[in-house]
Each structure stands twice: as C-alpha cells, then as structure tokens.
C-alpha cells in the first residue's frame, strides 16, 4: 500500500492510494462519488475485489471533496472530478506497474466520470463498472433528491442537504454545480461502450434510481449486466449489501479477466 500526493493540471494536491503494485492480472481505477473519499466502505469493497483477483488498484480523492486532496466541497463539479480522473490516469502512465488496457469502477458522480472516460477512450478499457451512476445532469434534476429544490436552488444560488454517509455533516452546493452537471449526458455516446459493463443500484436510491440505470443499460450494446440491491440506498454502507456487491463484482471480474 502506497499513499502519495500528485499535482493535477491546476497545481492542486491529489491524494492517490496505490495497492498491489506487484500484482500481474491488470490495473483498476476506483473512483468515489460527490463528496466521497477513497476509504468509504463501498469504494474499499470495489478495490479489494480487484486486489483479491490479482490486480493493481488505484484509488484517489478528487479535489473539492472531504478526503485528503486540496479544494473545497462548495467548488465541486462534474468537470473537476472528471479532470482529476484524467490526471490520475496520466500520472500512472509513468509508473512501472502501469498496464493497458485497464478497468474502471466508479460510484455516482465517479460513475459518470469513469463512463465518460470509457466513451472517449474505449480502446484503453477492459471493463467498466459505473455503480449507482449519474446518467445525465437532466435526469439528476428530476430525482427526488434534487427536483423539489431546483427552483429555490436557482433563486438563492445554494442547495443545502445532509450527508447520507455522515449524518452530522451538512453540505452546500452552489447553483453553478448543477449548471455544470447539466452539460453531461452518457446516453448519446453509450453505444460506444462495447466493453463489458457492470451496473449495480439500490432499490431505495433517490439520486440515481434504477429507472435511470435501466436507460443506460438499454443504450449499451456490448456485454452488460444490471443488478438491483434490495433495500439499499444510494450509498452502500450495510455489510449485507456490501457483501452482495462484492460477490457480483468478483463474478464479473472473473468472467472477463
């Protein structure tokens, strides 16, 4: 295990955790969602499953989140998350353990970022797992989490809500976050996702519901599977749900590795 700091294109420090550098099965990048961090239980579950299958795993904290990287949450955007993913991948290309093609897994906003990268660089990707992924900004605006707040958010400039993974934390996002998110949509280019794709979502998800995941599933033309975790919310924390996800990941990796 090796945690280090690299610089992104803006000169900000990005915390990167590399595990299994000597593993030979391949390379996997695992990305957290909005306001997340690389040590969250579900992110660790994705990463550990790759490690147990002989992969080198790279996790990182984006800037503008609650991890070890620089930045402020109120400045978080889909664009800055995506650019940090690009910058981490670019950095790994100079490492002795870099392997291509590689695997991508991401949760929520990390899901749309990894899928956007795969749409642009399909020749570099072995498998893609956008878990509980944001499918598009426009669809996000219709979800229970955001729909009731849209008018007030735009008028006041701010959206405040309680963290789903830390109930004691209140989060604030400026309207500019949604303006940025509305520019992204996986569906028009989803036909480019010809690599194996794994979709997982909880049936209690109010941010990226199963209906949105089914739209993405239907637009993908390559090998694909979609699983709905009974009783699970957007962010997976229940050990039972995490074990179910690990089983699905393990089976999927073994099928295509």
UniProtKB/TrEMBL annotation:
It is an enzyme of class 3 (hydrolase). It holds the Pfam family Abhydrolase_6. Its EC number is 3.1.1.93, 3.1.2.22. Gene3D superfamilies: alpha/beta hydrolase. Residues 31-236 form the AB hydrolase-1 domain. Acts as an acyl-protein thioesterase that hydrolyzes fatty acids from acylated residues in proteins. Regulates the mitochondrial S-depalmitoylation of the nucleophilic active site residue of peroxiredoxin-5/PRDX5, a key antioxidant protein, therefore modulating mitochondrial antioxidant ability. Also catalyzes the deglucuronidation of mycophenolic acid acyl-glucuronide, an active metabolite of the immunosuppressant drug mycophenolate. This is Palmitoyl-protein thioesterase ABHD10, mitochondrial. It comes from Candidatus Taylorbacteria bacterium CG11_big_fil_rev_8_21_14_0_20_46_11.
């Amino acid at each position: 295990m090796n945690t280090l700091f690299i610089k992104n294109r803006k000169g900000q420090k990005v915390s990167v955790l590399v595990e299994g550098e000597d593993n030979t099965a391949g390379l996997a990048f695992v990305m957290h969602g909005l306001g997340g961090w690389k040590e969250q239980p579900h992110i660790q579950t994705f990463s550990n499953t790759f490690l147990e299958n002989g992969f080198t795993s790279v996790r990182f904290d984006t800037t503008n989140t609650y991890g070890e990287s620089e930045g402020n949450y109120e400045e978080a955007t889909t664009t800055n998350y995506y650019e940090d993913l690009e910058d981490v991948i670019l950095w790994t290309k100079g490492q002795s353990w870099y392997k291509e093609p590689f695997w991508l897994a991401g949760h929520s906003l990390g899901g749309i970022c990894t899928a956007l990268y795969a749409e642009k660089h399909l020749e570099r990707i072995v498998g893609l797992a956008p878990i509980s992924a944001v499918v598009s900004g426009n669809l996000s605006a219709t979800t229970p989490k955001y729909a009731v707040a849209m008018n007030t958010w735009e008028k006041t400039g701010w959206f405040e809500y309680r963290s789903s993974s830390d109930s004691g934390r209140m989060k604030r996002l400026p309207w500019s976050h949604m303006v940025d998110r509305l520019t992204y949509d996986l569906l028009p280019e989803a036909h480019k996702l010809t690599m194996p794709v794994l979709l997982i979502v909880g049936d209690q998800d109010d941010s990226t519901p199963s209906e949105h995941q089914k739209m993405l599933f239907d637009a993908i033309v390559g090998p694909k599977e979609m699983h709905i975790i009974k009783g699970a919310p957007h962010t997976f924390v229940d050990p039972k749900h995490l074990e179910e996800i690990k089983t699905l990941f393990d089976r999927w990796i073994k099928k295509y590795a």
